[in-house]
Amino acid sequence: MDEKNVLKMLGNAIETYDSGAAEKAAKEAVKSKVDPLKAIEAGLAPAIERVGDKFEKMEVYLPELMLAADAMKSAMTVLMPLIPKDKKVSKATVVIGTVQGDIHEIGKNIVSNMLMANGFDVVDLGVNVKTSAFVDEAKRTKAKIIGASALMSSTIGSQKDIIDYLVSLKERKKYGLMVGGGPTTGEWAKEIGADGWGEDAASTVKLANKLSKG
Ligand code: B12
After folding, report:
1. 89 band by pLDDT with thresholds 50, 70 and 90
2. Is the pTM of this model over 0.85?
3. Host domain of residue 207
4. C or N terminus of the chain, fewer CB within 10 Å?
5. Is 88 within a domain?
6. C-alpha of residue 104 to centroid of ligand 1, in Å
7. Are 106 and 180 found together in one domain?
8. 154 lines ligand 1 (CB under 6 A)
9. What is residue 58's three-state secondary structure?
10. What whole-number percentage of the chain has pLDDT above 90?
11. Distance 213 CA to ligand 1 centre (A)
């Protein structure tokens, strides 16, 4: 199957909330040699965002959103392990997680995988991570970079909390802080004093490369 049709098949599976079809489409992507990251970012991600838009307009409800997320996971289970891991010496350790009060993990997981694939050691704290846990774990693992994901306007403030906490400990300069997730922007990152914003997995890798050198 050509790439365009594979991407369409992936998107359709998400928009019809069909986990079985999503897994099948992901296997088709592998068979057709579509780059796994492209399959995720150009096939699956735009589709789940379209479902999110329908949810916002109340054209679909939470159960559909959850089924779409499940379908996304089924496809990602096939695709994620195929992102090749870079076995070179670790560039730096990155502590990453989704902030307190927020359980969205799909984007954070994509970013984690891409960082690993590009030679970073990643400590993924999961979702609903306390502000202090980001910092404690960064200290424990001697991380150079902290990454905080937030998907809701009600939780992006926790990204600033991490920075304020580091400032209060007089440890702000020890870490490069990068933020990302749906409602965040480059302006937001600047406003809260973060060291950068990652719009997607590829730009996050570039940003992490820069921060690991700084
Ligand atoms: C899937 C989804 C869910 C799933 C999550 C499943 C899971 N395991 O993650 C479920 C169904 C559980 C869910 C629940 C809820 N959701 Co929801 N959800 C979404 C949806 C549709 C897609 C999010 C997603 O995965 N996008 C795809 C990924 C690939 O994109 P991404 O996360 O932005 O990540 C990319 C970049 O941002 C960046 N990035 C991400 N993280 C990081 C981190 C760093 C450090 C960096 C540098 C970069 C980076 O790289 C990623 C790869 O490209 C969005 C809609 C949307 N348009 O975002 C709503 C959305 C985020 N949800 C929303 C809401 C309201 C909720 C609920 C409150 C609903 C409810 N009434 O219960 C709950 C939240 C519960 C909670 N406490 O967290 C709203 C938030 C509104 C707002 N602005 O505040 C949205 C925007 C939907 C909407 N339009 O109304 N949701």
Report:
1. confident
2. yes
3. 93-213
4. C
5. no
6. 5
7. yes
8. yes
9. coil
10. 89
11. 30
